[in-house]
Specification:
By secondary structure, the chain is mostly helical. It has one domain (5-125). The protein contains 5 helices and 2 strands, in the order H-E-H-E-H-H-H. The chain has helices at residues 5-12, 38-49, 69-92, 99-104, 117-125, and strands spanning 24-30, 58-64. Helix 2 (38-49) links the parallel strand 1 and strand 2 (58-64). The longest helix has 24 residues, at 69-92. It is found in: Endomembrane system. GO terms for molecular function: cellulose synthase (UDP-forming) activity.
Length: 126
């Protein structure tokens, strides 16, 4: 199977009309921070929030069945970082959208990035 994003855009996004894409709820669950590190959970949430979908039509929920204080504190930090990361991803079409994987890439991150503010904002993210 393959997804054709251009076809979806033609069908649901028409200029001058309200966006017709359906609202999406995404649930993420975790139990044990020793088996599911909060960093991985945080990266999952950040990549979901930064996906190419209208921000007003996406909701992300986290269920921590283990009620871990470590996970709670990590997700508080993740929420703070998301205020910067999500707009950065959308503005510059960042891929991959999980910060851990994006910053681990060993590529020329300036390739195809012509906006002068990109380098400054990328450094601020790091």
């Amino acid at each position: 199977r393959e997804t054709y994003l251009d076809r979806l855009s033609l069908r649901y996004e028409r200029e001058g009309e309200p966006n017709m894409l359906a609202p999406v709820d995404i649930f993420v669950s975790t139990v044990d921070p020793m088996k599911e590190p909060p960093l991985v959970t945080g990266n999952t949430l950040l990549s979901i929030l930064a996906m190419d979908y209208p921000v007003e039509k996406i909701s992300c929920y986290l269920s921590d069945d283990g009620a871990s204080m470590c996970t709670f504190e990590a997700m508080s930090e993740t929420a703070e970082f998301a205020r910067k990361w999500v707009p950065f991803c959308k503005k510059y079409s960042i891929e991959p959208r999980a910060p851990e994987f994006y910053f681990a890439l060993k590529i020329d991150y300036l390739k195809d990035k012509v906006q002068p503010t990109f380098v400054k904002e990328r450094r601020a993210m790091k």
